[in-house]
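User
Class, as today's exercise, I want you to study this protein, comparing sequence with structure tokens, and judge whether sequence predicts the tokens.
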Amino acid sequence: MKARLSPDTFRIPVEEIKSGFYSDSYFLRTQEILNKDHHHPRVLMQIFQREHAILCGIDEAIAIIKKCAHNPDDLVIKALHDGDEIAPWETVLSIEGDLASYTHLETVYLGVLARQTKIATNVRRTVTEAKGKPVLFFPSRFDHYSVQLSDGYAAHIGGIFGVSTPANAAYWNGTSSGTIPHALIATYLGDTIKATQAFDKHIDPSVNRVALVDFNNDCVGTSLAVARALGSKLSAVRLDTSDTVVDVSILPYMGNFKPTGVNPQLVRNVRQALNAEGFTHVKIMVSGGFTPERIKEFESLNVPVDVYAVGSSIFNNNINFTADVVMVDEKPCAKIGRNYRPNPRLELV
């Protein structure tokens, strides 16, 4: 049996969830009606979605049910595992018991499953297209800070190589990583060499030295300058040219491809220049609008990228979950089209 994260792993606002603060009002009214009418049949709720996906959020959903249901010990919970590949309409979670005990949780656990499954699925697609090359998870700046814990865990389940914030790594006891930002280079008046040397001087030697080389729109020249300055200590250069800008090394090649941003020719120019001066050990990291489709294109063209960093594309494409009552007092009772679908893969929690 696969291990699950302990419910105590998650930072859950138990009292607010139990009070219904995060619940749709119709679930709270359902609970009120059932309690006031003393109507407590035993119901079976099944949860599913409609895509081929990588499941995530199950362990947190279980934690929410165990900590925030009114009588959790009377509930029977069966579930798949985080990281399971799931099919459309496959039951991923079932809850059996008095609906009044847990109906207020439906909004919350469905939201957890939706977001984390979306991220895990998008990460898996991205990692698959990268064909074994490391992919870094850098999208936290594009969303509210409060989701970083679960987002980072979902990315880990999806197969990400590294994350950017300590919160991203907290649930799985990982470590965060990152390169030099443009802001640091700006404080040294646009001198990438000085900024990188300052990084090298003051940051723990165990942290890879990765230089950001597009500040002055000359990735080839800046990469060579930094490589000459740091030598064997330079691990990689990161190309992050804006999608509205043409790097100076691209100008001689203009005519038959989109010249802006981080394009295949720019990566080749940097690789060739580094190799020509003996800096074959310096890897190339690319960032700025990379999606699974764009990574697939780069890989099909054998572009000499060593590491991909992805951001906002990880949040694309919602994967929505639905919960339905399908049995009442052990007898079939469901909305038309939503019949009970037992799943032998479910494990008792």
Observations:
- The two ends are 11 Å apart (CA to CA).
- The chain has two domains: 7-118+317-348, 129-315.
- The chain is about 35% helix and 15% strand.
